[in-house]
Amino acid sequence: MMCLHTILSQSFIGAIVLLVVVHAMPTDPSKLKAAAPVPLGVINPPKKDLWWPLLDQTHAPWLKKIDLDPKNPEKRWECGESYDKNSEVFATDFTRKMRKAKLLVPGNSGKNNLGIFTLPHEVSEFESISGDETVLKLVDYDWEGSSCEVLALRKFAEFQKAKGQTPTFVTSGFVKFKDPPRMSGLVVMRKVPGMPLKGTKQWQEEGGQRQEMVDKVFKNIADFDYELIQVTGYVHVDFSSGNFLVDADMNIYPIDFGAPSIYPVERIPTRSEFDAWFLKRFDYIWHTQGGKLQLTHLISPKKTLT
């Protein structure tokens, strides 16, 4: 596995910079090479259209009813018992453990990202994990939805343990700052293999290879998500390309669980029920039709996206 600084030297850091730099490269770089970023036109609708109308878009009888956030009635949140629980999930003071942290990505790269850090290799502050194998994400302590990310990571940890995997989630706490005086939540994770789909050389190439990659990712995300429901009773609803890394064989590695990422289910759907919902949701997020890329959504590389 290539070390983190190698990733930082690659040129594909762009619209998905947060996800690119905090995770390790694949074990076989000869098969999967970094390349310059491509426009977001093929994948992902405008952010303002992604979640609100989420209620209507994701409606399925097996999903639990989405509760309205009483503080923001126009927004719809559901992340179970962890909503507005920052004082509970960010209860441990990790300020001293962050003194040797190295900044990887400045804040504001994601909706609730106040900065991504790692530690020197020789510093093992969390569960004897090598410092450079940890990802330290600062989140907004004052935003009620920050605790949702911890809940989602804990549910994902249940899933990973059931499959005999080492959980990505390590722990969570808070960090105090003096200038200006403030407190941030801290989410501690292990690095995972892979790289963003849009950062691969294969994705850059025209022709059937790009669709072949999407076909594999579509199947792998669907299989993962349905198994997640069966193990945890939660479904991942934000399976955009930026929230999963891929390896050379298009195996997927979920990496972003910021709210609203997972929803509870009322019951376990049949696979046909799930597949019908998943295809609709996939088309909506990836701008595909029946899982097939639509060239009409390609945007010129010279065009500036807002």
What keyword list fits this structure?
single chain, 306 residues, alpha+beta, Phosphorylase Kinase, domain 1, 2 domains, 5-stranded antiparallel sheet, 3-stranded antiparallel sheet, globular, disordered C terminus
Description:
InterPro entries: ABC1_dom (IPR004147), Kinase-like_dom_sf (IPR011009). Keywords: Signal. This is ABC1 atypical kinase-like domain-containing protein. It holds the Pfam family ABC1. The structure is a single chain. The protein has 306 residues and is an alpha+beta fold. It has 2 domains: 163 residues, no CATH class; 108 residues, Phosphorylase Kinase, domain 1, CATH 3.30.200. Strands 3-4-5-7-6 form a 5-stranded antiparallel sheet. It has a 3-stranded antiparallel sheet with strand order 8-10-11, with helices on one face. The longest helix is centred in the C-terminal third of the chain and has 25 residues.
